[in-house]
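Ticket #4471: structure output looks truncated?

Reporter: J.K.
Steps to reproduce: submitted the chain below (146 residues) through the standard prediction queue, then opened the result file.
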Amino acid sequence: MGHKTGIALLMLAALMAFGFARSEASLLAPATIAALLITVVLPAVGGATLLWGGGRRRAARMHMLRQRTIDAEILRLAAREGGRLTAGDVAIAFALSPEEAKETLDALMTRDLADIAVSDDGVLVYLFHEAGKPGSKASARGILDA
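Returned output as attached by the reporter:
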């Protein structure tokens, strides 16, 4: 919606500028300057803002959606792998750079979805507790029964 409105405002500004250019009005008169500001400059600025700002919001939404999808797929991979993943596992599985895989895993750890451990070889291993216990739902009891 903002994209179409932005284009319409820019077209309006162009038509008004064309009309002013063809008119006999003195461009130095205060009334003409005020009319130019209201009918040409304001719509042009508004249209450009809608076009430019709309693209940034869409890009931000796309990035957020991509990140949520990657997070969900990492949790699914963790369930398949017994709840233990490395940044290398994630990078290979989702065609991410090792840095991006590590940043994503660190973000999941920050959200308390994973903990971190170090293997004997010095490799960081992310532990997803819920994903590593698929059978625990069957043994669940009521809170007061525990």
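Triage note (M.O.): checked the attachment and the full token line is present. The chain has one domain: 2-20+28-127.
Status: closed, working as intended.
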